[in-house]
Each structure stands twice: as structure tokens, then as C-alpha cells.
């Protein structure tokens, strides 16, 4: 059997055959013959028509493809309407099948069939044909593989052959047959080269068909039902040395006036075809080996290993600096200032020989006189048959004190651009050893095609890397940077992007500072993935921060968030868990909107539990009430809040993940970060996670009663002095005398404003000692103060200016009874 081109030659030497052939073997016809290869699809139409088929049957490929096979092929008993042969008329047939085999079953071929026919072919008169037919099964469209050969190539040339004096008798004695597992020399080579008879198919398709051919049996020639000779076309591709030798023999014969043998005159055409086929096979093989990953580094390694050693002995890959960094770069042709990173060096030399001279990771520009600059500016391959001493010296001058000449001199070099969409991303330097054949024009074309395919793969990887970087930046910008310590609690967070759905998602966490030294803890999950979900997540997170600053109760906050989501659009759905921690009252106030419940780990006994909360409906459903519950906590307790991507695995009940979450959260850890990592390890090792993960853990330390001081003052300006005195006294008791002057001044300003604007309720003053000194002043006026520009003669507007100057941080917030104005001072170092 032979490749779809059906290139074959007749041989003078007899072929090998099975044992017991006796004297027949001495006169057996050539076993290597041109074959016609035809593939018939499931509708009975020709889907492949090889060059050999055109030569044998006299029908061009353009006319054969798509025509009913019964109109073209003399295959008896294996196709519908086998009696109708429109092009050739009647023919006689013989099925040379083994015992117990039939050529058809219920009108369709179930076993291999073989036969012979005498046809009338245009411009060739009567032609005797031997054929083999293989039924094909499987998912493809192919139904039948047909091989055919002209018996003219089988008859002996000598008169003492098999009835050589009588063509008809020879025709009667020779028949096609199948040799199932026949033991003859070269059988393994025949089996290995079987894919070459097939047309261009995918690897899976060709492997499927070849496996069926091997199982059904090799095609053979059968003589008198006793002797068998394998039909094995000549696959060999002569080397260049052999080609030169044949040309020299042809020239010598011509000089001596002798006739030039046929095999010498045909060799040039055959070798050219074989070389082209070899290069195309190489390109197809490379295409199948690269692009298996969108990871830029992995793609570079695949490209380098694909060309060494089959095409070249050394391959050095250089990429633009911006490509390596995953960034965009300006349009236009590169110049002498463009930096190129050496990202890979693959070679067949001894290990380490190239490492010190041309290390991977080095960045360098290339001057205009080098072939590398010519390649990257023109975008065309540059071929240097041999690197001369002069060129080697010019190239080596770019490597400062490292002498690269021993590595490159006298080698053949091909520089090919890696480009995509007419943009040069980089280039490859290909070198061959001096003893290997030089790169030629065909290699230049092959290298250019190789670089074009590699460049497209690299550009896809570059674009993916760039988009991934943009997505990561977008996600990071939307996620808050939460301080590790808030009033009365420590916080640790983790975010993991979805493993299969990109780096942008709708999961988020947050913490918001509230009046009264309280902290709001939030975890949410927008349904869906991608930029739309991330954009909605950003809107909802901003809304939560804004409403939390208004000190809305958890249930009311979720109610308002649900209304907002419905105004944004019908497709806006999200789950949210909102908890307010009061470290002074040692209490959690929690409301849930369709989210998975949090885990509370008790410090006393290390026990963990899923909090039983009213589930509520997701944000965006509308018309569903939200309920809040209060949970008592103790100092040291930990609350763990996460999105369902951490606990939910496809095909597994979510209860399994929640149980694992509770168990892993209870394990003791040296720090909050270690505790988060332990949870991630316990849950992320289970296969099947595709969703994003947001995790927030807070250790609820509480604030001791001795660290809190509260006063109430009547709406009397004289009370301001009492407030100053109370603050100074308490700060001295706490050992914070250094803060007394500034704190007293700011308290005086805030209490004065509160007394002036309050309506009926007394002014409340609270000091909280923690990581900072927090001071809060409450009154029943709902109008928030604003920072004003005070002129030289104005008496109003200076109070908040003083607070802005002296406080580390300050702010205001509305409460249900009025407002709170607060400021913080950093504690002095001890």
C-alpha cells in the first residue's frame, strides 16, 4: 500500500513471500507497485481520489470527488447497485477471499473483499485491475477504503514467468487476496507505514482506519491459491547523496551514448515530491505538538523542542520585551533600540555548552548590520548557508566578553520571524552542525511556514497572558485591601479565581468601620462569571459600603440592596451575607440573602458550628423579606464566611463541602493567615472546582470594659468644659497623657457643635482604647457637618479644620436617632 500520491516503482528484484512458495518465488512479479487509493463515504460518494486512481481509471480527481462510487469503481458485491457501472460497462470479477469469508452481508460489506476486473479506460483500451476493499466502521464519514492496481505491473517480463506467453492465462493465475498476520520479511515495516496510504486525515481518523486494515489483513497477491506475495509500494526517500549518485550515473550513461534507465529519469521528480511531502509531514507534526497550552512559557518550550533535532540542531528563541511581560507594544517596525529577550535555547550539543555564553533570560538589542535585525524589520526569513569568520566575528561582538564564535562559525543558519497579524513578536535562530546539510530554499520556505504557525500560537498565548493580566488587575482593583486589624477584631482574607472560567468573577468580601467601634463584615457572590458579573459586583460592593456607612440594620441594608439590584436590571442576581460585630457588646448581628451560612468557631472548646440563619432569597429576586438574628460571641471566637465556590463541587452534595469547611475551620493555627490556608488546602484539593472563591475570617477579640469610657452631657455650653476635664482625666488613667492636649482640643470642638445643634437628647461622648484611641460624639441632629473654608475674620468653620489637622482619621455617619462624629489618634510608642 502507498501514500495518497501513489508514487511507486517497479523493482527488478523479486519480493519476499511466505514460506513454501518454491520455484514460484524466483519468477514472482514485483511486489512494490503503484496503488490507486479511493475512499467512499457513507452515502456511497467518492470522498478521496488519489493520483494513482486518476492514472489507473483515467478520471481526474475533480470529476471523481462527489460522484457515486458505483459509477467509477469495478468493486463487485461491496457497493449498492453493483451491477451498474456507467463508465466502464460490463466487467468480469473474481473474489479472492479466504475460506468462510463473503464479500457482502445483507447488501452491505462486513468483511474485506478482493477481486479483479477488466475495464475499458479512455485512451488506454482494456485494463486489467486487481482491487482490495476494506469496510470502515467508526464515527467518521468514511465507509469503504478501496485499493487497486494495474495487473500490467504484475506480469513477468520474462517468457519463462508464470504463463508469460499468455496474458490471459497470467491474468487467470494472479488474484488479490488478504494475508492476515502473514509472516514475511518486512511485515512490521509495512504495518508501520500503513498510514501513508491514507488521504489527509486527523490523527484519530487515520489511526482508526489503519487499525481496521491491520486487523483485517495485509493486501497480497495470490498465485494459484498457494503462494502469496505482499503488495508493498516503495516508501523509501533517497538521501541527497543517493540523488547525486543517480544524477552522476545518468550523466555518465548519456556521455557514453547509452540509454538512460527509467528509474534515473524519474528520480528527480520523485525526489522532489518526496522532499515536499517530508516537509509537509514535518509541519503537520509540529502543528500537532505546539499550541497545547495558552501558557506563554509552555508554548515557547513546545516550539523549541518541535524543531530540534529533526529540522535543526540549535534553536534560540527571542521575543520582544513587551511580549514576555504580557504588555502591549507600539505599532511599527522594530528598531535598534528594541529589546529582545532570549526565552529559550534548545540544542543537541553537550549539556551546558550554551548556558554560559547565551543564557536564557538575557535581554539585548541587535544592530542594523546583523541578519537578526534584517529578519525582524523585513518580517522575512534570512538564510546564511555558512557563517563565515567575518560574520561570526560581527555577531560575537554583541556578546561583550563572551566568545560565541566557536558555537556558530561554519554552521548553516536560518533566521525566521515569529509574527502574527503582520506584527513581528520575535524570531528564531536555527543552526545546523557543520557536517549536516546546509539550509536550502525549501528549508527557508519550511522555516517561514513553521514560524508563521508558531507565531500565531505565540500570539494567542500572548493575548491570553495580556488579557489575564488585565483581568487580574481589574479583579484586584475591585477587591478591597482590608487592614488586618479593625476595632476589636483581626481579619484575614483569601481570593481564588475560577480555575476554568477566567480570573474575573463576581465574588467579593469587605469590611466597613461603623460607629461604636463596630465592624461590618460582608461576603457576596454575583451569579455568573466574566466582566458583567465583575461589573455588577463592583456596583453592589460600593452600594454596601455606602449603606453600611449610614449604619443601617443588616436586614434593612439587604432590603435596600435588593431594590437597587432590581433597578439595575432583571438579570442581576447575587447572594450576600452581612454581619455587624459589636466588640463592646460581644455580639454579631447577621442577615443572609441566599448565601451559604457562616461557620463560628468557639474559642473555649474549639468547637465549630454552622450558624442557623434565615436563608432569605438572593439579591435581585424582589418581594422577599430579610430577617436578622443576633448571636452572642466570646473573645477569641472566629467567624468564617465564604462563597459557595469553596465548598461546592459538581456531582457532590454541598453538605459534604460544608462539613469539611466546619472541620477545617476548627483546626488550631499559628496565625489567621495559616488558618485561612488550612481551609483552602482542605477544600481546594477536591477535584472539580470551577468557581471563584472569596474567604473572610475574623477573630472576634472584643474590647474590655476597662477600655471604654462613656459620658452624657446636657445641652448646655458649660458642659463643654466638663467634657474636656473628663477626657483629660481618663487619658491620664490609661497612661495616654501625651494625647491629652490634642484629644481635649478636638473633643471641645465636637461637643460644642453637638450642644449647639442638638434638639432634645443629651450629647453622648465615648472613648475607646484599642490599637488606636477612638473618640465618638453622638447627638440627635441628622444633618452631617461639612468641612468649610474659614476666612480670617470668620468665627465658624474652624472646628472641623482643627480635627482634620490633628486627627489621624475622622468621619461622620448617620444613625437612626441622629449622627455620630468621630476621630482617631494613634497611640504613642512605648
Description:
- The protein has about 850 residues and is α+β, with helices and mostly antiparallel strands.
- The chain has five domains: about 210 residues, Beta-Lactamase (2-Layer Sandwich); about 50 residues; about 180 residues, GAF domain (Beta-Lactamase, 2-Layer Sandwich), CATH 3.30.450; about 220 residues, PPM-type phosphatase domain (Phosphatase 2c, domain 1, 4-Layer Sandwich), CATH 3.60.40; about 120 residues, 2-Layer Sandwich (Heat Shock Protein 90).
- The chain is built from 20 helices and 30 strands.
- A six-stranded antiparallel sheet has the order 11-10-9-14-13-12, sandwiched between helices.
- Strand 7 and strand 8 form a beta hairpin.
- The longest helix is centred in the middle third of the chain and has 38 residues.
- The N and C termini lie far apart (about 90 Å).
Amino acid at each position: 500500500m502507498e501514500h495518497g500520491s501513489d508514487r511507486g516503482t517497479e523493482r527488478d528484484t523479486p519480493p519476499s513471500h511466505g514460506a513454501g512458495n518454491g520455484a514460484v518465488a524466483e519468477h514472482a512479479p514485483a511486489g512494490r507497485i503503484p496503488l490507486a487509493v479511493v475512499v467512499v463515504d457513507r452515502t456511497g460518494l467518492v470522498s478521496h481520489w488519489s493520483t494513482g486512481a486518476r492514472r489507473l481509471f483515467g478520471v481526474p480527481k475533480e470529476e471523481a470527488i462527489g460522484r457515486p462510487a458505483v459509477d467509477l469503481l469495478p468493486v463487485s458485491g461491496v457497493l449498492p447497485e453493483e451491477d451498474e457501472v456507467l463508465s466502464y460497462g460490463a466487467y468480469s470479477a473474481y473474489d479472492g477471499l479466504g475460506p468462510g469469508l463473503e464479500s457482502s452481508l445483507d447488501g452491505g460489506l462486513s468483511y474485506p473483499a478482493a477481486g479483479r476486473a477488466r475495464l475499458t479506460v479512455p485512451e488506454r483500451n482494456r485494463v486489467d485491475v486487481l482491487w482490495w476493499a476494506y469496510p470502515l466502521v467508526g464515527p467518521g464519514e468514511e465507509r469503504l477504503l478501496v485499493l487497486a492496481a494495474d495487473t500490467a505491473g504484475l506480469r513477468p517480463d520474462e517468457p519463462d514467468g508464470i504463463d508469460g506467453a499468455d496474458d490471459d492465462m497470467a491474468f487467470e493465475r494472479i488474484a488479490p487476496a488478504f494475508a492476515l498476520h502473514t509472516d514475511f520479511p518486512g511485515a512490521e515495516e509495512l504495518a508501520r507505514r500503513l498510514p501513508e496510504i491514507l488521504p489527509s486525515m486527523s490523527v484519530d481518523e487515520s489511526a482508526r482506519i489503519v487499525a481496521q486494515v491491520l486487523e483485517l489483513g495485509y493486501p497480497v497477491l495470490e498465485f494459484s491459491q498457494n503462494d502469496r506475495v505482499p503488495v508493498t509500494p516503495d516508501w523509501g526517500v533517497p538521501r541527497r547523496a543517493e540523488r547525486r549518485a543517480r544524477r552522476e550515473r545518468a550523466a555518465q550513461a548519456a556521455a557514453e551514448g547509452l540509454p538512460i534507465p527509467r528509474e534515473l529519469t524519474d528520480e528527480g521528480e520523485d525526489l522532489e515530491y518526496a522532499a515536499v511531502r517530508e516537509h509537509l509531514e514535518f509541519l503537520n507534526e509540529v502543528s500537532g505538538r505546539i499550541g497545547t497550552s495558552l501558557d506563554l512559557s509552555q508554548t515557547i518550550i513546545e516550539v523549541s523542542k518541535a524543531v530540534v533535532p529533526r529540522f535543526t540542531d540549535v534553536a534560540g528563541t527571542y521575543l520582544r520585551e513587551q511580549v514576555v511581560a504580557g504588555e502591549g507594544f507600539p505599532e511599527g517596525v522594530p528598531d535598534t533600540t528594541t529589546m529582545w529577550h532570549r526565552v529559550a535555547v534548545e540544542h543537541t550539543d553537550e549539556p551546558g555548552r550554551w548556558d554560559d555564553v547565551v543564557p536564557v533570560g538575557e535581554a539585548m538589542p541587535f544592530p542594523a548590520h546583523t541578519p537578526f535585525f534584517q529578519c525582524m524589520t523585513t518580517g522575512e526569513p534570512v538564510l546564511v548557508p555558512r557563517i563565515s569568520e567575518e560574520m561570526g566575528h560581527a555577531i560575537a561582538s554583541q556578546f561583550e566578553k563572551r566568545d560565541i564564535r566557536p558555537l556558530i562559525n561554519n554552521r548553516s543558519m536560518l533566521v525566521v520571524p515569529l509574527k502574527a497579524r503582520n506584527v513581528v513578536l520575535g524570531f528564531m535562530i536555527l543552526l545546523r552542525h557543520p557536517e549536516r546539510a546546509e539550509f536550502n530554499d525549501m528549508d527557508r520556505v519550511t522555516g517561514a511556514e513553521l514560524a508563521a504557525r508558531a507565531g500565531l500560537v505565540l500570539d494567542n498565548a500572548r493575548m491570553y497572558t495580556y488579557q489575564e493580566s488585565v483581568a487580574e488587575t481589574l479583579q484586584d482593583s475591585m477587591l478591597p485591601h482590608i487592614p488586618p486589624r479593625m476595632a476589636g477584631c483581626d481579619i484575614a482574607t483569601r481570593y481564588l479565581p475560577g480555575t476554568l472560567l477566567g480570573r474575573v468573577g463576581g465574588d467579593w468580601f469587605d469590611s466597613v468601620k461603623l460607629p461604636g467601634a463596630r465592624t461590618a463584615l460582608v461576603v457576596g457572590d454575583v451569579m455568573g462569571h466574566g466582566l458583567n458579573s465583575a461589573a455588577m459586583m463592583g456596583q453592589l460592593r460600593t452600594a454596601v459600603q455606602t449603606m453600611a456607612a449610614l449604619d443601617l440594620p443588616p436586614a434593612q441594608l439587604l432590603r435596600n440592596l435588593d431594590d437597587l439590584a432590581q433597578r439595575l436590571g432583571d438579570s442581576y442576581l447575587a447572594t450576600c451575607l452581612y454581619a455587624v460585630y459589636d466588640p463592646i457588646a460581644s455580639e454579631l448581628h447577621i442577615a443572609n440573602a441566599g448565601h451559604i451560612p457562616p461557620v463560628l468557631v468557639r474559642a473555649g472548646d474549639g468547637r465549630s458550628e454552622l450558624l442557623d440563619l434565615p436563608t432569605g432569597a438572593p439579591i435581585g429576586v424582589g418581594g422577599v423579606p430579610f430577617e436578622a438574628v443576633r448571636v452572642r460571641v466570646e473573645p477569641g471566637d472566629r467567624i468564617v464566611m465564604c462563597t459557595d465556590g469553596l465548598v461546592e463541587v459538581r456531582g457532590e452534595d454541598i453538605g459534604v463541602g460544608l462539613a469539611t469547611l466546619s472541620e477545617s475551620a476548627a483546626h488550631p493555627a499559628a496565625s489567621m493567615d495559616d488558618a485561612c490556608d488550612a481551609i483552602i488546602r482542605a477544600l481546594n484539593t477536591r477535584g472539580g472546582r470551577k468557581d471563584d472563591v472569596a474567604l473572610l475570617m475574623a477573630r472576634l477579640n472584643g474590647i474590655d470594659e476597662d477600655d471604654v469610657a462613656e459620658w452624657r452631657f446636657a445641652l448646655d455650653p458649660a458642659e463643654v468644659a466638663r467634657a474636656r476635664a473628663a477626657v483629660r482625666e481618663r487619658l491620664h488613667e490609661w497612661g495616654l497623657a501625651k494625647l491629652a492636649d490634642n484629644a481635649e482640643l478636638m473633643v471641645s470642638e465636637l461637643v460644642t457643635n453637638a450642644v449647639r445643634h442638638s434638639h432634645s437628647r443629651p450629647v453622648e461622648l465615648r472613648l475607646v482604647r484599642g490599637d488606636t484611641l477612638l473618640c465618638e460624639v453622638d447627638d440627635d441632629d441628622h444633618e452631617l457637618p461639612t468641612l468649610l473654608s474659614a476666612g480670617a475674620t470668620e468665627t465658624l468653620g474652624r472646628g472641623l479644620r482643627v480635627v482634620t489637622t490633628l486627627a489621624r482619621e475622622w468621619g461622620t455617619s448617620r444613625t437612626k436617632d441622629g449622627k455620630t462624629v468621630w476621630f482617631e489618634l494613634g497611640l504613642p510608642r512605648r
